[in-house]
Design brief:
The chain is mostly helical. The chain has helices at 3-48, 69-119; strands spanning 56-60, 63-67. It is rod-shaped, with a radius of gyration of 25 Å. Residues 87-114 form a coiled coil. It holds the Pfam family Prefoldin_2.
């Protein structure tokens, strides 16, 4: 590989590695959101099984505070909506980064082929 071609390849390879790291972080964020979604669904299931007159408490710091059942249900639903929105955003970001990574991979392969053709 010529010095300029090698330098270009190295820069592109660094970009590829950075993109891989960003994609990994996006996957981790998505997995965290999925965990939060599952936890929130469990809370919703618990609300569905509450008997009439049940009391609901919320942990605020080190203290359990009594909370209105309807308010608690509304808060959990808002949280679920928020998580769904963030999960949609995370999925879109992962898809975009996956496509970008594939493009970068193809570009690196072309650079290698071009260098091999120039050397041969």
């Amino acid at each position: 590989m010529a010095p300029d071609a090698k330098e270009l390849f190295e820069r592109e390879l660094e970009g590829f590695k950075a993109l891989q790291d960003a994609l990994q972080k996006s996957y981790e964020t998505r997995m965290c959101l999925i965990g939060q979604q599952q936890e929130t669904e469990l809370v919703q299931d618990e609300f569905a099984t509450l008997e009439e007159g049940s009391q609901v408490f919320k942990l605020v710091g080190p203290v359990m505070v009594k909370q209105n059942v309807d308010d608690a249900k509304a808060n959990v639903e808002k949280r679920m909506d928020y998580i769904r929105g963030e999960l949609d955003r995370a999925n879109t970001l992962c898809e975009e980064r996956e496509k970008e990574l594939q493009e970068k991979q193809r570009h690196l392969a072309r650079l290698q082929q071009d260098a091999a053709g120039a050397a041969g």
